[in-house]
Amino acid sequence: MLSFLSAHAYVFAQIFGFCAMATAISMYQFKKHKTIMLLMVLCSSLWCVHYAFLGLVTPIFMNVINVLRSVVYSRREKKWASGLYVPVFFTAAAIVSAALTWENAWSLLPCVASVCATVGNWQTDTQRLRLLTIPVCVCWFIYNLVNHSVAGMANETFTFISVLVGLYRYQAKKAGPSSE
To answer: Hey, where are the domains in the chain?
Structure first.
């Protein structure tokens, strides 16, 4: 069984990656914040399996941090989860994890993405959140390209397009109807 899994690791990696992508796409269709956070936990967990099949340690650790961050951010209304020390902690955790799991210079990309996601997801202004998602997508796309993650590249492409659409829609709505 292990030899079968090993021989087909790349295929299994892509299957888990596309399952993670489907979860990511669907999670924002739910109304309850708690449901979205639980699906975000599932999504990051699936990415962990994806990267495990690819043999990439740094993104596994970054996604474990994402799981923990999603759980804590879902409790932001609680006093213990609302202090500025929360994003500082997750930023430090990403940097330490990247140092401990260093594989090569490409390992910096998931770390930078995790730091940007930590700061972005902490924002209450959704436009700032969207803007901080752009470097997240760019870093993960490049990392996935270098490491042959088709599912990861597809996910970042869809996310990037979604962010651009959101930025455009928000700006168009803010500008209002043209007065020409």
So the answer is: 2-175
